[in-house]
UniProtKB/TrEMBL annotation:
GO terms for biological process: cytochrome c biosynthetic process; cytochrome complex assembly. Required for the export of heme to the periplasm for the biogenesis of c-type cytochromes. This is Heme exporter protein B. NCBIfam families: ccmB. Belongs to the CcmB/CycW/HelB family. It is a multi-pass membrane protein. GO terms for cellular component: plasma membrane. One of its GO terms (molecular function) is heme transmembrane transporter activity. It comes from the Bacteria. The chain crosses the membrane at residues 37-55, 61-80, 114-139, 145-168, 175-196, 208-231. It comes from Marinobacterium lutimaris. The keyword Cell membrane applies. It is found in: Cell inner membrane. The lineage of its organism: Bacteria, Pseudomonadati, Pseudomonadota, Gammaproteobacteria, Oceanospirillales. The keyword Transport applies.
């Protein structure tokens, strides 16, 4: 916290240095809270493991449903970790200091969301090939799965951060975050699943990836503005 607050109080600090300091701080804090770090991965693995037991262990059936199951599990695992994105900063008062500092809030917000994605979305993407083997996803679909997760999970983090910012002042905001952002996750889920299915069937998946990229670009431009405004509303309220 001291590193980030010290950076925010110096008006002459460069934007790159501020971004790097915020990113480094959030990564360090997340690595210290190992339970919060591994919970999304454990949840992701549990959903994938329990699905065949609850439906059917038949390989052909699992292979057909694998794209949707993996994407839904990744979406829910990302959502599970969103409540803590701004919670620690709000509890110790550093979030209010950030809002009062002369440094651009958007830059700090993007750094915090990037740190969250690196520890959740990127981690889920890296374990996706193992999960695809467990669900008998054909090898042809693995590249499409990896690419779609790389493009889609950052959008999940950006959109989820809006809900986290709106509910940061509430004691039990986790359920409310789900209600707020789940409808906004639907396009990412549709295009991500479609990309994997297209890769499995040998159809071109460039269109799905282009749509996921467009959603990511839109999120990078608009989400920091919405997150900053939501934080100001939550803290001032």
């Amino acid at each position: 916290m001291n590193q980030q607050l010290g950076a925010s109080r110096r008006p002459d600090i460069g934007m790159g240095a501020l971004f790097a300091a915020t990113l480094k701080r959030d990564l360090k804090l997340s690595l210290r809270r190992k339970s919060e770090l591994v919970n999304p991965l454990i949840f992701f693995l549990m959903v994938i493991t329990l699905f065949p037991l609850g439906v059917s262990p038949e390989p052909g059936f699992l292979a057909e449903l694998a794209p949707g199951v993996i994407w839904v599990a990744a979406l829910l695992a990302t959502l599970l970790s969103m409540d803590s994105l701004f919670r620690t900063d709000f509890d110790d008062g550093s979030l209010e200091q950030l809002l009062l500092s002369p440094q651009p809030l958007m830059l700090v917000v993007v750094a915090k969301v990037l740190a969250h994605w690196m520890l959740t979305g990127l981690a889920l993407t890296l374990v996706a090939p193992l999960i695809s083997v467990m669900l008998f996803l054909p090898a042809e679909g693995v590249p499409g799965l990896m690419l779609s997760l790389l493009l889609g999970t950052p959008t999940l983090s950006l959109v989820g951060a809006i809900g986290a910012a709106l509910t940061v002042g509430l004691k039990r905001g986790g359920v409310l975050i789900s209600l707020l952002v789940l409808p906004l996750y639907i396009p990412v889920l549709i295009f991500g699943t479609g990309a994997v299915q297209a890769a499995v069937t040998g159809l071109p998946l460039g269109g799905y990836l282009a749509l996921l990229g467009a959603l990511l670009a839109l999120g990078i431009v608009l989400a920091p503005l919405a997150i900053g405004a939501a934080l100001r509303i939550s803290v001032s309220g």
